[in-house]
Amino acid sequence: MSQRGAQGLPIDLTGKRAFIAGVADDNGYGWAIAKALAAAGAEILVGTWVPALNIFETSLRRGKFDESRKLPDGSLMEIAKVYPLDAVYDTPEDVPEDVKANKRYAGASNWTVKCLIPMCLKSGRKLLKTVKNDFGSIDILVHSLANGPEVTKPLLETSRRGYLAAISASSYSYVSLLQHFLPIMNPGGASISLTYIASERTIPGYGGGMSSAKAALDSDTRILAYEAGRKGKIRVNTISAGPLGSRAAKAIGFIEKMIEYSYVNAPLQKELLADEVGNTAAFLASPLASAITGSTVYVDNGINTMGLALDSPPLST
């Protein structure tokens, strides 16, 4: 874990502010990235999916996350503010009526992407619960969210609606977030997303257009690196993380098998820790990575380099 004041070459993000989109519990990569950035000194803001907002805030308030909030120096990670967010929608006008009427969204407001930044209009009055009004600017933007409603279906059985939903939630949401946050990002800042090896290799069972969405995310990283670099002096990178048994990943249906496969076949035969991805994000967000942009950084114990599965039955005969 990154830590301020460490001997050698420290990662110091003191005075920096980070917004992490997609934190809804304490066992995913988004949480680990938030912890690493906090350990390096950054102020933490998070965007939480609206249906998970109440239980997440309640768990924080009641101390259920206190053990996992512990930083290397013994202090607890502080989250300056939790914002409701559904990055599938840019404006309130984009939200379908059935979603507006859904009881899981009841009581929440200002949760579309645009409402986070330039301020939405409602009944002729500006809504003030935005990152811009609350904090002025940010230095680090992290996209840690994805969803494919038909992820368990083979691509040949995926509907147009399911495919486009995966693209919208898992890749365009990043384009939209960076597009809207860029005007309030300080020059020299960094933006990071999370991708997966399925963007470039066939992972049977990882369906519903999710592999396509990750491939789009990889491509967008390179284009956004150019555009955001020229327009706002912002670096843009993506981390290709190995499988993690988070609550979100369990939707795939065979995440434990993916973890086992990676353990058996990767060059580094060890468990992949969420903190390892968090530490990489802290590095990419820091001045130590000031010349790195448009890159896919693999944090997967090296499984991406393998062309042959060592546990393949023919090899054991």
UniProtKB/TrEMBL annotation:
<comment type="subunit">
    <text>Homotetramer.</text>
</comment>
<keyword id="KW-0444">Lipid biosynthesis</keyword>
<dbReference type="InterPro" id="IPR002347">
    <property type="entry name" value="SDR_fam"/>
</dbReference>
<comment type="pathway">
    <text>Lipid metabolism; fatty acid biosynthesis.</text>
</comment>
<keyword id="KW-0276">Fatty acid metabolism</keyword>
<dbReference type="InterPro" id="IPR036291">
    <property type="entry name" value="NAD(P)-bd_dom_sf"/>
</dbReference>
<keyword id="KW-0275">Fatty acid biosynthesis</keyword>
<keyword id="KW-0809">Transit peptide</keyword>
<protein>
    <recommendedName>
        <fullName>enoyl-[acyl-carrier-protein] reductase (NADH)</fullName>
        <ecNumber>1.3.1.9</ecNumber>
    </recommendedName>
</protein>
<dbReference type="InterPro" id="IPR014358">
    <property type="entry name" value="Enoyl-ACP_Rdtase_NADH"/>
</dbReference>
<dbReference type="GO" id="GO:0006633">
    <property type="term" value="P:fatty acid biosynthetic process"/>
</dbReference>
<dbReference type="GO" id="GO:0004318">
    <property type="term" value="F:enoyl-[acyl-carrier-protein] reductase (NADH) activity"/>
</dbReference>
<keyword id="KW-0560">Oxidoreductase</keyword>
<keyword id="KW-0150">Chloroplast</keyword>
<keyword id="KW-0520">NAD</keyword>
<dbReference type="Pfam" id="PF13561">
    <property type="entry name" value="adh_short_C2"/>
</dbReference>
<comment type="similarity">
    <text>Belongs to the short-chain dehydrogenases/reductases (SDR) family. FabI subfamily.</text>
</comment>
<keyword id="KW-0443">Lipid metabolism</keyword>
<comment type="function">
    <text>Catalyzes the NAD-dependent reduction of a carbon-carbon double bond in an enoyl moiety that is covalently linked to an acyl carrier protein (ACP). Catalyzes the last reduction step in the de novo synthesis cycle of fatty acids. Involved in the elongation cycle of fatty acids which are used in lipid metabolism. Required for normal plant growth.</text>
</comment>
<dbReference type="GO" id="GO:0009507">
    <property type="term" value="C:chloroplast"/>
</dbReference>
<keyword id="KW-0934">Plastid</keyword>
